[in-house]
Design goal:
By secondary structure, this protein is of the alpha/beta class. The protein has a domain at about 10-180 and about 220-245: 2-enoyl-CoA Hydratase, Chain A, domain 1, CATH 3.90.226.10. The protein has helices at about 5-10, 15-25, 85-105, 125-140, 160-170, 185-190, 200-210, 210-215, 230-240, 250-260, 270-275; strands spanning about 30-35, 60-65, 70-75, 110-115, 150, 170-175, 220-225. It has a seven-stranded mixed beta sheet, with helices on both faces. Strand 3, helix 3 and strand 4 (about 110-115) form a beta-alpha-beta unit. Helix 3 runs parallel beside helix 4. One of its GO terms (biological process) is malonyl-CoA biosynthetic process. Keywords: Membrane, Transferase, Transmembrane, Transmembrane helix. GO terms for molecular function: acetyl-CoA carboxylase activity; carboxy-lyase activity; transferase activity.
Length: about 290
């Protein structure tokens, strides 16, 4: 690929959550709800000696994308690693629930989720878990009507309960730099030891949970270059298609069959994972559709 083309890319990962949404939505259609001026902060962080953020790390907006109405949400990975608590989780769940209600009243509304998150905020453990459960339920409700599209571009990735949320979405786009998983590398190493998963081995981590690998093993629908225009084109295509005939989370029997063939005593590597989990295959998308 030409060096000039690479330099000309508008890398979504280099922008904050609010600007990422504005890059993807139709010009002038971004309308933020519960913005920082509403001072909707977590009441729990100050008790831990942590400075709260006035939007609690989640940008919630309404807008249009290729003319389609969307509930647009972005998690700010730079704030506490994109972790979710009571307030930020409620913002996401509430927006998705409102979108589902709009569909039931004849106003087609899809959802776009920009996920850069380590999962539940430890300072708000049970409250965060309850909020993420509400997010899961809201995604399953909304996806019956219009697509729920998730995008993760890095550098934080998408882990924990929000990794499950990504799997529930109608479509999932990752860049090569993004990562997707349930537990992060440090957590796995802490619980199982470095012989199981060395959190300092960056090549191992991206080979197992990076965007290209997750696409090759069927856990993501597209692996795209980190470019706002290319990502927007892919999201447009999914909005035009509508919900898929069968969501990934409905393929329970397929995944059970794969797990039944795995030998958990063998150390996982990229090749073995691709061989076992390649339920869907496709080429890495270089420039969008």
């Amino acid at each position: 690929m030409a060096a000039v083309e690479i330099l000309q890319r508008d890398r979504l990962s280099e922008h904050g959550a609010r600007q990422r949404l504005k890059k993807l939505l139709d010009p002038g259609s971004f309308r933020e709800l519960l913005d920082p001026f509403q001072r909707l902060e977590s009441p729990w962080l100050e008790r831990q000696g942590i400075v709260a953020q006035s939007d609690d790390g989640v940008v919630a907006a309404r807008g249009r994308l290729d003319g389609h109405e969307v509930a647009a949400l972005a998690i700010e990975g730079a704030f506490l690693g994109g972790s979710l608590g009571e307030v930020s989780g409620a913002k996401i769940a509430g927006m998705l629930e409102l979108a589902a209600e709009a569909n039931r009243h004849g106003r087609p509304t899809a959802a776009l989720l920009l996920l850069e998150t380590g999962g539940v905020r430890l300072q708000e453990a049970n409250l965060g878990l309850a909020a993420i459960a509400d997010i899961h339920a809201a995604i399953v409700d909304l996806r019956r009507y219009r697509p729920v599209i998730a995008v993760s571009v890095g550098p934080v990735g998408c882990f924990g309960g929000m990794g499950i949320a990504a799997g529930l979405c109608s479509y999932l786009l990752l860049t090569r730099e993004a990562r997707l998983g349930l537990n992060g590398p440090a957590v796995i190493e802490q619980e199982a030891g470095p012989a199981e998963y060395d959190a300092s081995d960056r090549e191992l981590i991206w080979n197992l949970s990076g965007g290209e690998q997750r696409h090759a093993t069927g856990f993501a629908d597209v692996c795209c270059v980190d470019d706002a225009a290319a990502i927007r084109r892919q999201v447009q295509d999914w909005l035009r298609r509508g919900p898929p005939p069968r969501h990934r989370s409905q393929r329970i029997d397929d995944y059970r069959a794969v797990l039944a063939r795995l030998d958990a005593a063998e150390q996982a590597d990229a090749g073995r994972a691709r061989s076992a989990f390649s339920l869907t295959q496709g080429d890495v998308m270089e420039g969008g559709l």
